[in-house]
Amino acid sequence: MIDGLSPYPEYRPSAVEWLGDVPAHWDILPGRACFTEKKEPNTGLKESTVLSLSFGKIVVKPEEKLHGLVPESFETYQVVDPGDIIIRPTDLQNDWNSLRFALSSHRGIITSAYLCFHTEEVLDRRYGHLLLHTYDLKKIFYGLGSGLRQNLNWSDFKYLPCTIPSLPEQAAIIQFLEHADRRIRRAVSAKRRLIALLNEEKQAVIHRAVTRGLEPDVPLKPSGVEWLGDVPAHWDIRRLKWALRLQRGYDLPQEKRLPGPYPVVSSGGIIDTHHEYRTEGPGVVMGRYGSTEAVFFITENFWPHNTSLFVTDFQGNLPQWGYYLLRAISKGDYSGKSAVPGINRKDLFEISVPVPPIKDQMRIVPFLIAAEDQNHLRIVAAQKEIDLLLEFRTRLIADVVTGKFDVRAAAAALPDEADEPAILDDVDAPADAEADVPLEIGVEDADGIEA
Q1: pLDDT for 324-347, tens place per residue?
Q2: Eight-class DSSP state of 269
């Protein structure tokens, strides 16, 4: 992707510390020569399509997400056209992570709390967005802004130094970066699919070991339970309440919440370490509200929070066997009420579960621990590769847009990609987000603002 790239043949000082030297033939113009602020209120409700800034892309906001908004309130919104650059200018003081710029491909309305820019004739609108995005990557805007929370306004952009190559060179830069972006997104998408498959594999290994054991040729018998199927003939089938003593977590009165060494464990994991009241470990904790998929094995003494169900009495079974058994149930292998928000432990009590002899449990548990360790290492390696790809992508964009590499020849040699398949992932969104975003690079604002 970067084979043959080299610096420009000649540079000159920009006189701007954070820009450094720039290609000698590039102009440096103030922001007011490159951008114009657009303010078009939605007076008379002339537009009704509500837009949202999400993961660096302007998208149409679904009607079901227009919480609390009424048609009259949309008069306070501003009108956005395709090609407009939208900026979230708020809260620079507290939010250093969000990327704040998006290029619209829609006509509609968006909150007037955002800025809306046109590009002037010296800029291709896509390059104008890339330029501001690059400055955002370099955290230029965090020294600007006004007010208690450092909000940007048009005056912060009027004198912003902007590096401006010719329009044909801007087109080459855009072409090169879009090509690079597609390749990086494919690689990231492939790694994310691998992680998803590894997680599926992990659950499949747990399910098979919990329901069939480790012997491939062991005689089987019908369990009479749909989610179990056939189980080893020498295993017992019991209701959960006879295999594990599942209890409800509890609140601790404020007057008893004294500093102590025992962690507080909820359905989301360890949430505190400052309480002395405790339950004897080891134990297993799972969610009581919402999804019950979060299951944690706790080796020390702990306080089970009231949002959780917990087990410390394993009715003669190995504690970690109980952990893997609950994980098999919680992932939806049982089709009853175990995935219903606000589950009552009595619903779980009636689930029929397999109970192998202790000698089988003593073989299965170490096998699953080792399998999970190996699976975890593979997931960590894949995630590290994703992180490196995204870091490379960020640096490549910043270096090309600020003139550190000359991409004109490389762009001219690129193949025609008009018929390429759609990108599978938005690499700026969380891994489980559903999005398909081309090179309109950014992330959702940290406040979760969608307007």
Answers
A1: 999 888 654 443 444 334 456 777
A2: E
Q: What is the pTM for the complete model shown?
A: 0.79
C-alpha to C-alpha distance for 23 and 380, rounded to whole angstroms = 40
Query: Is the bond preceding 282 in cis, omega lying within 30 degrees of 0?
Result: yes
Q: Tokens at residue 242, please?
A: 């006879």
The C-alpha torsion from 125 through 78 and 440 to 411, rounded to 10°, is: -10
Contact 324, 210 (CB under 8 A): yes
Residue 332 has what pLDDT? 47
Beta carbons of 354 and 181 less than 8 angstroms apart:
no
CA distance 179 to 439: 9
The two beta strands, 51-54 and 220-222, are unpaired
Asked if residues 116 and 86 have their Cβ atoms less than 8 Å apart, the reply is yes
For residue 295, which of 315, 310, 280 has the smallest C-alpha distance? 310
Residue 45, amino acid = L
Enclosing H/E stretch for 309: strand 308-313
Phi-psi region of 151 (alpha: psi -120 to 50; beta: other; left: phi over 0): beta
Q: DSSP assignment of 327-381, as one string?
A: HHIIIIIS-SGGGSTT--HHHHHT-EEEE--HHHHHHHHHHHHHHHHHHHHHHHH
Name all domains of the chain by residue range, CATH numbers in brackets.
214-355 (3.90.220.20)
Scanning the structure block, which residue is given the tokens 């704040």?
Answer: 100
Q: What is the chain's mean pLDDT, rounded?
A: 82
Query: DSSP characters for 8-30?
Result: -S-EEE-S-TTT-EEETT-EEE-
Buried b (16+ CB within 10 A) or exposed e, 191-210: bbebbeeeeeebbebbbebb
Place of tokens 């000082």: 13
Tens of pLDDT, residue by residue over 67-111, are 766 667 788 899 999 999 999 888 776 666 667 899 999 999 999
Phi, psi of 215, rounded to the nearest 5 degrees = -85, 120
Q: Do residues 158 and 103 make contact, with C-beta atoms less than 8 angstroms apart? A: no
Give the span between the Cα atoms of 294 and 268, in whole angstroms. 7
